[in-house]
Amino acid sequence: MSEQTSRPTSLQEAIAYFADPDRCFAYATKLRWPDGKITCPRCDSEKHSFIYTRRIWFCAGCKKQFTMKVGTIFEDSPLGMDKWMTAMWLLVNCKNGISSCEIARDLGISQKSAWFMAHRLRLAMQNGSLMKMGGSGTEVEVDETFIGGKARNMHLATRKRRITGTGGKDKTAVMGILERGGKVRTVVIDNRKKKLLQGHVRSHVAAETVLYTDALLSYEGLAAEYAHGVIDHAVAYVDGKIHTNGLENFWSLLKRGIGGTYVSVEPFHLFRYLDEQSYRYNNRKDLDDAGRFEQAMHNVFGKRITFKQLTGNDQFEARQTN
């Protein structure tokens, strides 16, 4: 692999590539300022001096120092960019995710630091698109599932505390919308009532789309705006093109990652893990490992989340501002 022109294409190459501090710094700097015009993230001034020994700039405008981490998910992190780059590569390319314990062992940092790091990286993997999916003739699947621990896998004391009913009572409901041949979107929902589910469908799916759902009564009434096909899972799972098997596949990947890698996910953090799995799923065909890494790295700018926000109680409200 040529240092001048080639990018790393595998985990081994990425570790070797970013292990060189100068090369890692040059890569990150070019990623942030591709036109070569370095501006202060605080005042946008282009007048500054560079302190090479510390790899920081001193802004002549606001009279403050800044690094390439300021104004990104990396801000105020004492960890080197080589560790951040490696962690990002692992998170975007490991099919079933990677736990904070494993990141901690691989990078030689504490589990607490790895947990905070992983959540900051997931912020860069969020899809903030507001464009509606589908359109005339396009096929879209809509389905819901419940995420939560299985009672048989819990300690008796935990089971008594967390399992207070049957079915989905003690689990978190998640809604998925999948455009066939396209991308998936997910949203954590409070319930499966008609008003809520149909509101999300209308917000994310364009009118006149060919819409496929199961026979849940909450979806009744969508035929006026969509070509609505219904599959009753009590009778069959497929009726020609009418099925939700695409989303069932996504739910399988999601639950395999949560159950096998993360083991237990708190409901107020669940949307972050949905963003992570959606990112990998949406980019599984169009991008290779290097492409998924570079796309995620382009999304680290202008975003930040603090440890206090992650450990607070208002997580659903916090998502609207992050």
CATH topology of the domain at 139-265: Nucleotidyltransferase, domain 5
Helical region count?
Answer: 12
Radius of gyration based on Cα positions: 22 Å
What global shape is seen? elongated
Mean pLDDT: 89
Q: Give the total of beta strands.
A: 8
Put the structure in a nutshell.
The chain has a domain at 139-265: Nucleotidyltransferase, domain 5 (2-Layer Sandwich), CATH 3.30.420. Residues 1-5 and 314-322 have low confidence and may be disordered.
Q: What this model shows, in words?
A:
- This protein is 39% helix and 13% strand.
- The two termini are 38 Å apart.
- The chain has 12 helices and 8 strands.
- The longest helix is centred in the last third of the chain and has 18 residues, at 245-262.
- Mean pLDDT is 89; it is low at 1-5 and 314-322.
- The strands form 2 sheets. The protein has a 5-stranded mixed beta sheet with strand order 6-5-4-7-8, sandwiched between helices. The chain has a 3-stranded antiparallel beta sheet with strand order 1-2-3, with no helix packed on it.
- With 322 residues, it is α/β, with parallel strands linked by helices.
- The radius of gyration is 22 Å and the shape is elongated.
Record the SSE blueprint.
Blueprint: H1 11-19, H2 21-32, E1 48-51, E2 56-59, E3 65-66, H3 81-93, H4 100-107, H5 111-124, E4 139-147, H6 156-162, E5 172-179, E6 184-189, H7 194-204, E7 210-214, E8 227-231, H8 245-262, H9 270-282, H10 289-297, H11 307-311, H12 315-319
Parallel strand pairs: 4-7, 7-8
Antiparallel strand pairs: 1-2, 2-3, 4-5, 5-6
